[in-house]
Amino acid sequence: MNIRIMIMLTLVFFGLTGYSVEAASDPSVFESIQKNPSSEEQSTVTTEIEERSLFSVLGSLVLYTLLIVGLIYGLIKFLAARQNALPASQVIRVLGASSVGQQKSVQVVQVGDQVLIVGVGENVTLLTEITDEQQKQKLVLSNKENIHRTPFQQVFQTSLENQRKRLLEKKEEWMTRGDKT
After folding, report:
1. Residue partners of 35: CB distance under 8 A and separation at least 6
2. HSE on the CB side for 68, CA within 13 Å?
3. Beta-carbon neighbour count of residue 109 at 10 Å?
4. What is the pLDDT of residues 86-110, one digit of tens each?
5. Measured on CA atoms in the order 16, 19, 20, 21, is the torsion positive or negative?
């Protein structure tokens, strides 16, 4: 029964579209040439093709590829920032984590006012609770400072601070040499 309905719908669809009427109304190429034998009288339709150099095409290819990669990178960064920017009223926060093997890690977790160190593997195990208030504050503050930095920004900031220290040392060395002369 379903096959009959599909065949009938197909026939109705093709019957309504009028393919045979359109084919009869458009003359073939052969018929067009027979009607207008002189090539000078025929109207020629020319389409302008923009000629571009190989470097222009390759430049466009590189540009659009970089644009797509940039959009993907921006989307990843946006999603990562969105996930890191969790509301401040959240009860559980991961302050840090370190992998110790395949599918195993040690994590520092803040639950309310408590700071816990847990082992995560096939199950979650409480390793210890940090009770020292100074250590708690240090962990919480270090997390707040690093929450908006990516690993690259952290490495870059450390490198920049080292460069500043070396520059100040060289400046002081130069100044002391300048005073002696």
Report:
1. 27
2. 5
3. 18
4. 555 567 888 888 888 888 899 988 8
5. positive
φ/ψ of residue 94, rounded to 5 = -90, 115
Exposure string for 1-24, b = 16+ CB within 10 A, e = fewer? eeeeeeeeeeeeeeeeeeeeeeee
State both tokens at 14. 């093709």
98's enclosing H/E stretch is strand 92-101
pLDDT digit string (tens) for 141-167? Answer: 776 665 555 677 777 888 888 898 999
For 178, residues 6+ apart whose C-beta sits below 8 A from its C-beta are none
Ordered by start, the domain boundaries in the chain are: 2-35, 149-181
Low-confidence spans in the chain with pLDDT less than 50: 19-21, 41-42
Q: Is residue 76 classed as helix, strand or coil in its secondary structure?
A: helix
pLDDT of residue 25: 62
**H helix runs in the chain, sequence order:** 2-17, 19-25, 29-35, 54-84, 133-146, 151-180
Confirm if 105 and 153 have CB atoms less than 8 A apart: no
CB neighbours (10 Å) of residue 115? 23
Can you name the residues that pair with 119 across neighbouring β-strands?
106, 125
Q: How many degrees, rounded to 5, is the angle at CA 63 between CA 57 and CA 65?
A: 100
